[in-house]
């Protein structure tokens, strides 16, 4: 778990609390609910950006690992599905063994 993923989960937790407070204030005092909903929306946006940063860090790690020769993909495409999906999906007639998912 990267720091970005941890911070993303924290933002999601606080956004849930902000949404709950927005609902509470919507029932009791109508104009104060805007603060809760606005902060929840802002925290959800921050969480999505942090999650994207987490995905970039994971991709960079996998690329560096591949460049080191630990899990190098083949130099030639093994099937048509492999070409279209950048190595993630394989066709039924593919002769290459599938990658193990160790994420």
UniProtKB/TrEMBL annotation:
The chain crosses the membrane at residues 30-47. Keywords: Membrane, Transmembrane, Transmembrane helix. It comes from the Bacteria. This is Uncharacterized protein.
């Amino acid at each position: 778990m990267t720091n970005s993923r941890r911070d993303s989960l924290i933002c999601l937790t606080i956004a849930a609390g902000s949404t709950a407070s927005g609902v509470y204030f919507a029932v009791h005092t109508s104009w104060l609910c805007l603060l809760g909903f606005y902060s929840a929306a802002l925290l959800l946006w921050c969480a999505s950006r942090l999650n994207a940063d987490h995905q970039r860090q994971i991709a960079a790690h996998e690329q560096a690992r591949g460049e080191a020769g630990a899990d190098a993909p083949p130099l030639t495409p093994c099937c048509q599905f492999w070409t279209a999906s950048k190595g993630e999906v394989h066709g039924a007639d593919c002769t290459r063994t599938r990658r193990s998912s160790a994420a």
